Amino acid sequence: TNGSTGNRAAVGNDNSKYFCWMNLLGWPFPGNPRHVYFNWIDPDGNLNPNGFLGQVSTDVPSGYTNMDIINGNRGAITYHCSGGAPPRYVTLSVDFDPPGLGFFDHYNPPDELFPQTDNSPGRLYWPYIAVDRTNRVHLVATENSPVLGWYQRVGYVRSDDGGATWSNLQLVDTVMVISSVIDASPVSDRVVLAYAGTEDTSTQWNNDIDRKSVG
């Protein structure tokens, strides 16, 4: 995890339970593959009863995963990866119905705030997810800076149909640390984004907690 932990465990309306994590298959990295995995406990408490090995991602390398529940009992798992065709960075993988079988629909949310240059990488990494009470998917992610201490822009995007289509990617703020997280109210349509806002642009170490309502 870089900066913030987010959620890597979630409980469905039927009391099923999902878990997701990043797994490096050997050392060192790069060289050995890195993937995102999941596991599932059914409503009766049986761990992964279908015997699936649990790999979510197919592109290499994939990692830095977070999750929430969509449609009551299906895992919505987000992460970033460097490969694939077309090239994917932020990815959303949504479990099939019925859940827990290890089959996912993979979606490619908008994740390029600006055209990429040597001084402005543009692409977003480290996604965090919140699914609200109407099953809208909210994602926030932070630009990947090639140099420690450079500015990194934070972007927000939303899907109203489970990942099939997305809103325009919005610039939230410019920061100097990776810390953005997002959460949705279970009793209203409010969604909040929190992050470490830069107080002093001459250093990474002087930040304060900022929050914004989104969605």
In short:
By secondary structure, this protein is mostly beta strands. The protein has strands at 9-11, 17-24, 34-41, 62-70, 74-81, 90-95, 104-107, 124-131, 137-143, 152-159, 170-175, 181-184, 191-198, 207-214. A hairpin with an 8-residue loop joins strand 5 (74-81) and strand 6.
Describe the structure.
It contains no helices and 14 strands. It has 215 residues and is mainly beta. The model has no long low-confidence stretch (mean pLDDT 87).
Distance between the termini: 25 Å
Query: Which sheet architecture does the biggest sheet show?
Result: 4 strands, antiparallel
Give the C-alpha Rg. Answer: 17 Å
**Helices and strands: which structural class?**
mainly beta
Q: Order of SSEs, N→C?
A: EEEEEEEEEEEEEE
Q: Shape from CA axes?
A: globular
- Spatial ordering of strands, largest sheet: 4-5-6-7
Task: State the helicity in percent bands.
Answer: under 10%
Mean pLDDT rating: 87
Estimate what percentage of residues fall within beta strands. 35-45%
**Tally of alpha and pi helices:** 0
- Quick one: how many beta strands? 14
> Unreliable stretches, pLDDT < 50, 5 or more residues?
none
